Amino acid sequence: MNAVVFEQYGDPDVLHVADVEEPHPAAGQVRIAVRAAGVNPIDWKARSGAMREMMPLSLPVIDGREASGVVDEVGPGVAGVASGDEVFGFAVGGAAAEYAVLDDFARKPEALSFEEAAGLPVGVETSVRVFTILGGLGEGQTILINGAAGGVGALAVQLAVARGARVIGTASEANHEFLRSLGAEPTTYGPGLEERVRALASDGVDLAFDTAGRGDVPQLIALTGDPARVATIADFGAAALGVKVTGGSDGRAAEALDEAAELAASGRLHVTVAETFPFARAAAAHRASEGGHVRGKLVLVPG
Predict the structure, then answer these.
(1) How confident is the model over 191-250, as pLDDT tens digits?
(2) Domain 124-249 class, CATH top level
């Protein structure tokens, strides 16, 4: 089968389409004919070698972690799913391929395209995991989401709104109307963030979620009054400040997939696909992700 692979660490040009062996599902897994695969910052960080000490890889590697598609093989012990069902979820051994094996998955709502569904798993799982490690998020609380227009941030905003929270989100001014459409109150990131947020919430905020890693964590601590109320997925040095730094090694909040599917089916969760790329242009997708300032998700599609 064709897959997007890299055989050595390096710049985006190490990505290429190659013929690799087809995977098959083990117990609790399904195989899908891939219709779309999401692109995330963790993908280019892994490809570049930036995380080789924290997350060593056995090369060659198939790119990607999240996918949507049509089930064509069902592993032992899987109930309620059959060949022909449309699903989305987390890939085992790579997502950007003709076929991918999923271990955690949910049914794709009819309201979502395959491209939109492929952009859900990483963002919603990360958001729900962060809400949980911060002690839970619910009705009447105020959360600040730093980097709210990106792939994770935009989903975190919607999940927080659905839980009844007030959301203040940071983004460049060009994305402020987009944030309003998601239910957030927008402001800009960077120097002066604390003052700008206090103009919206004079007593500060209950919780803060940093998806951007732009050096704003000290201001987030000041706004919450407690580093334990701040979590980041992008500023690993913030652990020294007492902030909660979380990644996939902390365990997966797999229940987020069903929550997202239910919200999407009822029209309360939308995925903004910024751009789609064929597998052959995976390098361009990685460059776009590395460049930042992407509104929503980047997606790879076979062909």
Answers:
(1) 999 999 999 999 999 999 999 988 999 999 999 999 999 999 999 899 999 999 998 667
(2) alpha beta
To which residue do tokens 């729900």 refer? Answer: 128
Task: Please name the residues in contact with 224: beta carbons below 8 A apart, sequence gap of 6 or more.
Answer: 144, 204, 205, 206, 207, 208, 230
Residue ranges per domain, the chain?
2-120+271-301, 124-249
The CATH number that domain 2-120+271-301 falls under is 3.90.180.10
Contact 91, 144 (CB under 8 A): no
In this structure, the strands spanning 142-146 and 166-170 are parallel
Question: Which residue, among 241, 238, 174, 240, has the nearest Cα to 210 in the 3D structure?
Answer: 238
Q: Is 277 helix (H, G, I), strand (E, B) or coil?
A: strand
| Eight-class DSSP state of 108 | P
- Global pTM exceeds 0.90: yes
Q: Does the N-terminal peptide bond of residue 60 adopt cis geometry, omega within 30 degrees of 0?
A: yes
Strand partners, 67: 37, 89
Q: Return left, alpha or beta for 302; rule: phi > 0 is left, psi -120 to 50 is alpha, else beta.
A: beta
